[in-house]
């Protein structure tokens, strides 16, 4: 079989060969006797590396996986989906169980092989990364790419938190999915085939989903859950400090106010139907007792929820009653708001007429005074 990669153990005891049959064979260096085979890769391994203490072996393969093996018995400790394309190189950091991998997806990744967690992803190359080397002190890494560049990645004094890196990575993946969905949306709403009408067209949604809208939806869902839990709590228990001194209903309303109007529709999409039920109940209270600004926000929210969940609401008797009461309450409040607007417009028109009349009077008096002064000057002359 063809040999694709070779590696010596740091203690000079073993030599490892990656073969075209997707196995890795390990031999004793002094006698070249066969020691053990590593089976598990579905495609040939392209790189091999021994840890500095000779206890672990890392192999990267064309099957996009990084496998960690025990050097004593050749058992596979962990198989990690490392890259979106073939793993081209791997290298351990000296005196640690940290390993760097390079892939044809253009990324260099940093792994903890004790916890099997991805610590950091280094993006910067514009093409496949084919080669990788770690300094003896582990303070910098050099990667070589098909884009004809070498990149030096230096360790800094800044602390790195795996949870934050994981959250940032998940946000990037989510943003990529949202971008792909948004790219497909024009054909889905009727600019392509007439038969491909999406839920967005039916519901009248005009916003685009983004990380901000998803986070807004999550905050709204948390606020609804908190409001329901606090509303059902006994009177003897202290209110949750998360309410910030507000009642559950007012806290939920403040959360809803914090969502930008352009993101409201997409934020409501992520809510489960149980949360929609509770939100409509609270909206009824805002319409009955809230200020005019609260009524406007409640009406916008109710209309969006009805558009999104028309079939489910029609099938739920309790929700049909709530929506019916909301219709009556909104009609009453909107009629009052319309009357108030009409009264204000009439008052403004009256004030404008009075101001115009006052201007005319002042202009006439000024003209008369100017004419009298001109007559006096003429008489003196």
The number of helical runs is 9
Side by side, the strands of the main sheet go 1-2-3-4
The counted number of beta strands is 15
| Percent of sequence in beta strands | 15-25%
Which residue ranges are poorly predicted, with pLDDT under 50 across at least 5 consecutive positions?
Answer: 186-207
Encode the helix/strand succession as letters: EEEEEEEEEEEEEEEHHHHHHHHH
Biggest pleated sheet: 4 strands, antiparallel
Nearest-integer average pLDDT: 82
| CA radius of gyration | 35 Å
Alpha-beta content class: alpha+beta
Roughly how many Å apart are the termini? 125 Å
**Portion of residues within helices:** 40-55%
Shape: elongated
Structural overview:
- This protein is an alpha+beta fold and 381 residues long.
- It has nine helices and 15 strands.
- A hairpin with a 5-residue loop joins strand 1 (3-8) and strand 2.
- Helix 3 packs antiparallel against helix 4 (248-257), helix 6 (273-289) crosses helix 9 and helix 7 crosses helix 9.
- The longest helix is centred in the C-terminal third of the chain and has 64 residues, at 317-380.
- The protein is elongated, with a radius of gyration of 35 Å.
- Residues 186-207 have low confidence and may be disordered.
Please describe the topology of this protein.
Blueprint: E1 3-8, E2 14-19, E3 24-28, E4 34-38, E5 45-50, E6 56-61, E7 65-70, E8 76-81, E9 87-92, E10 98-103, E11 107-112, E12 117-123, E13 129-134, E14 140-145, E15 150-154, H1 162-191, H2 199-203, H3 211-231, H4 248-257, H5 261-269, H6 273-289, H7 292-308, H8 310-314, H9 317-380
Antiparallel strand pairs: 1-2, 2-3, 3-4, 5-6, 6-7, 7-8, 9-10, 10-11, 11-12, 13-14, 14-15
Helix pairs in contact: 3-4, 3-5, 5-7, 6-7, 6-9, 7-9
